[in-house]
Each structure stands twice: as structure tokens, then as C-alpha cells.
Design a protein that fits this description.
This protein is α/β, with parallel strands linked by helices. The protein has 2 domains: 166 residues, Periplasmic binding protein-like II (D-Maltodextrin-Binding Protein, domain 2); 91 residues, D-Maltodextrin-Binding Protein, domain 2 (3-Layer(aba) Sandwich). Helices cover 24% and strands 17% of the residues. It contains 8 helices and 10 strands. It has a 5-stranded mixed sheet with strand order 7-6-8-5-9. The protein is elongated. The protein starts with 8 loop residues before the first helix and ends in an 8-residue tail after the last helix.
Length: 315
């Protein structure tokens, strides 16, 4: 959501901070491993940076920012469903919205699993709040690895390292619960409804090329315009990427719902773990990712924290 590869002015300050072209989200939000429930066992990465040979232990003897600890960076506020709030967290806590320290939420849980696969126990993990724009910029990093919906792009790899993916980005439909479209369970069922999306996005292309509704889709300059149109009942649903759909449902709409996420067609964006450019820890992070994919941990976390959070599949 906030790290996708297409920016939207109004959401950029809150959601995303550095998108690459094509997605309907705002600044910076797909990973090779988080497949839809029907294919959740298929976890081959979309883009695979160089990894060590199967017989090498890439995590042996790695040097971290703080000796003996793995420092994990994340943006602050930390948004659900990637980081979940903790009722026991005081109001003046360091972290806003979600709390990475409780291990709850998709990226908090993935980070913990990856850290363990890298050889670090829970008491050897520390979290650092780092703004997204600072994380993706060139230069030394105050963290070893960083997870905050960072979409892979070749341009970004000129300034930072990006691992194999851990979540593939799907398109999704957001609507108001009171609208009949909320009951739709198939892509074909969307055809009779009035849909909208920001101009020039992969979301709009998905509508015209794959849903092919009987009513021409509305086009908006940004997501704000689409949200206002939905609230005014000028359209029945908005097509956006899934991370943005969560944000719209939970933060922008009253009575909003995710109708469902759509089958992937064509190229797939994915979230990567970010490290400093040329980091010696990158092969270790990729090795750890491969491990949590192979043993089913990543698939289970994706199901629990993404698809089970009110994001059904549209067949």
C-alpha cells in the first residue's frame, strides 16, 4: 500500500512513499511468495537476486549493525495488516498504529520468521523506526534488513539491495458494504457494475482488459477522486492493488469492504526485503527467505495475515 510503485498525491504522505510505475497505489508498496490461497503453495520468487550455492551457509559469520543482534527497520506509523496494534501499548509509544515489537501482522511475523532462519533468537532482534524515503535512499543504513511494503524495481537496486520477493501484489475491488457488488464472488459477476480507477494505472488496465464491464469504467486523476466518487455512489467499486484496498477499507471509508482480490494476469510486482547497497547480509536474507518458503511458513503467514483479513479470492 504505502510502498507500491505508483504515486498518488493525497495518499503519499500517509501510505506510500516511492512507487514504481503502474500500480494504483501511492508512493512506495509484490512478492514472489504470497500466492492466492488456491496457489499459496507455489512460492517461486518473481525476481531472484544472486543466492549462495545450496551447500554454503550464507549466514555464517555475518556482521550486523549491532554486534550479536539483528536490527530490523520499518516505517512509522506501521500500518495494519502488516503490523498490528497492541492493546497493551501505551498511547505515547514509539510506534504509531501497529507495533512491530509484538510480532503480530504480516510483515512483523515474516520478519520474525526470517530472523530466526538467519540464526537470531527473539531476544537478539531489535526494531528501528526508519522513514521509507530514507530507507530507499543511497547511503549507510541504521538497520540490517527493512520490511515496509518495498516494491521491487530495477531502479531501486541502484541505491539499495532488494531480496527475492515475499509477497506478490494482486489487484482488488473495494466497495461499500451496502452496494450489491459486495456480494459478488466471481470476476464475471463484476461485469454489470460501474467500476473506477486512477488514470494510467495497472488497475485501470485490469478493468478494461480483464474484467471488461458492460459499463465504461470511470477514470480519476488520483485515488482521492475515486474514493469521493464511491462515497457519492457514482461508481459501485474501485479497483486498486490489495495493500491499498486494506488502507481504503480501514482508514478512508465508512462501511467499506474488500469485495475480493483478482486473479493475477501478466507481470507481477512483489515486495522485497531491503538492505544497504552491496550488503554482505543480502545472500543470508535470501537464504532465510528460501527456507521459510520451503517449509511452508511464509505461505501460512500470508494466509493468516493477508487473505484471512477480509480479502477473499474472486474466481
Amino acid at each position: 500500500m504505502r510502498r507500491a510503485l505508483f504515486s498518488v498525491a493525497t495518499l503519499a504522505a500517509v501510505l506510500l512513499a516511492g512507487c514504481a510505475g503502474g500500480s494504483a497505489t501511492s508512493a512506495p508498496a509484490a512478492s514472489p511468495t504470497a500466492a492466492p490461497p488456491s496457489t499459496v503453495a507455489s512460492l517461486a520468487p518473481s525476481v531472484a537476486p544472486a543466492t549462495p550455492s545450496p551447500t554454503a551457509n550464507a549466514c555464517a559469520g555475518i556482521a550486523t549493525v549491532v554486534s550479536g543482534k539483528l536490527t530490523i527497520g520499518a516505517d512509522n506509523p506501521a500500518y495494519p495488516p502488516y503490523f498490528q496494534p497492541d492493546p497493551s501499548t501505551p498511547a505515547n509509544a514509539k510506534w504509531g498504529l501497529g507495533d512491530p515489537l509484538n510480532g503480530q501482522g504480516f510483515e512483523a511475523a515474516v520478519a520474525d520468521a526470517v530472523a530466526q532462519a538467519m540464526g537470531f533468537t527473539g531476544d537478539q532482534v531489535a526494531w528501528a523506526a526508519v522513514a521509507f524515503n530514507s530507507a530507499i535512499a543511497p547511503g549507510a543504513k541504521p538497520f540490517d534488513i527493512y520490511l515496509t511494503q518495498v516494491s521491487y524495481s530495477a531502479d531501486r537496486t541502484k541505491a539499495v539491495d532488494l531480496t527475492d520477493g515475499y509477497f506478490d501484489l494482486s489487484q482488488a475491488v473495494v466497495a461499500l458494504k451496502a452496494n450489491p457488488i459486495a456480494q459478488v464472488t466471481t470476476v464475471a459477476g463484476l461485469k454489470e457494475f460501474k467500476l473506477g480507477a486512477p488514470v494510467g494505472t495497472t488497475s485501470y488496465t485490469y478493468i478494461t482488459a480483464n474484467i471488461q464491464p458492460t459499463k465504461a469504467a470511470n477514470v480519476y486523476n488520483d485515488l482521492d477522486g475515486a474514493v469521493k466518487a464511491l462515497q457519492a455512489k457514482q461508481i459501485d467499486g474501485i479497483v486498486v492493488d490489495l495493500p491499498t484496498a486494506f488502507y481504503m477499507r480501514d482508514a478512508q471509508l465508512t462501511g467499506g469492504t474488500i469485495v475480493g482480490y483478482l486473479p493475477t494476469v501478466g507481470d507481477v510486482e512483489h515486495f522485497s526485503i531491503l538492505l544497504g547497497h552491496g550488503s554482505p547480509i543480502t545472500p543470508c536474507a535470501n537464504q532465510a527467505l528460501a527456507s521459510v518458503k520451503a517449509d511452508g511458513t511464509l505461505a501460512a503467514l500470508t494466509q493468516k495475515w493477508i487473505y484471512d483479513q477480509g480479502a477473499p479470492a474472486l474466481k
